[in-house]
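Long-time lurker, first post. I've been practising inverse folding by hand and with some scripts of my own, and I keep getting stuck on stretches where the structure tokens seem ambiguous. Below is the full token string for one chain I'm working on. Before anyone asks, I'm not after the true native sequence, just a reasonable design that respects the backbone. If someone could post their per-position residues I'd love to compare against what I wrote down in my notebook.
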């Protein structure tokens, strides 16, 4: 038993050492009906990074829909059954049967325009804020006035018991460039868009039904690890 324990510890130390040496920022390219979106994944959130890369390499996202789109907020995908969805079908309920422990690194990563983040079940059912295995969203958002940011901070205080505060740099970003501050400190941000924000914008403003599904389907034609 002692030999097995030592072997396991050695393996874990070796894996940790390799992870520290890997400084590559992996990138994924989404080819969509509206154009291409390229995202970079953060090494600081390795559980989300590795799970996302695994799903992309398996072709999990190929052919699925952006099934939930809310103007001036975000675009969401991750339900593999949507590749077969017909008009009017209920979508967005399916995902692999596991979750990913939260890797919330705030204020380093926040919900700025272009942020890539993991969707999850609400706090009432998921107090640890574990992420969905496959559902992700890309932030579009909007810009905010000083008064609006104060109101957003009140919402954040309520959701986090006052533990999460926007820094002045983050407030300045939201004033100038936009995002969705009310989610800060509550969802794992694990990457960001590096090319294709115009495409994100175009998807964000498509017509949707009463359930936020685009009237005209928007597919991820193919997702590819490009770096």
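-- Answer (accepted) --
I ran through it position by position. Result:
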């Amino acid at each position: 038993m002692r030999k097995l324990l030592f072997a396991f510890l050695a393996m874990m130390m070796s894996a940790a050492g390799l992870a520290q040496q890997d400084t590559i920022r992996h990138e994924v390219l989404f080819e969509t009906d509206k154009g291409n979106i390229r995202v970079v994944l953060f090494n600081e959130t390795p559980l989300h990074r590795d799970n996302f890369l695994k799903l992309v390499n398996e072709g999990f996202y190929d052919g699925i829909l952006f099934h939930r789109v809310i103007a001036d907020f975000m675009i969401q995908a991750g339900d593999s059954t949507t590749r077969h969805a017909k008009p009017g079908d209920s979508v967005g309920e399916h995902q692999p049967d596991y979750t990913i422990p939260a890797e919330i690194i705030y204020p380093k990563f926040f919900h700025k325009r272009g942020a890539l983040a993991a969707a999850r079940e609400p706090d009432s059912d998921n107090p640890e804020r574990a992420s969905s295995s496959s559902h992700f969203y890309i932030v579009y958002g909007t810009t905010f006035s000083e008064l609006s940011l104060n109101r957003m901070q009140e919402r954040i205080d309520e959701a986090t018991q006052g533990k999460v505060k926007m820094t002045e740099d983050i407030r300045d970003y939201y004033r100038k460039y936009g995002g969705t501050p009310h989610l800060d400190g509550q969802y794992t941000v694990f990457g960001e868009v590096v090319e294709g924000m115009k495409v994100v914008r175009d998807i964000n403003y498509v017509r949707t039904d009463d359930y936020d599904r685009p009237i005209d389907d928007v597919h991820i034609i193919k997702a590819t690890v490009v770096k």
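A couple of notes from the structure itself: The first strand starts at residue 27 and ends at 32. The radius of gyration is 19 Å. Happy to go over any region you disagree with.
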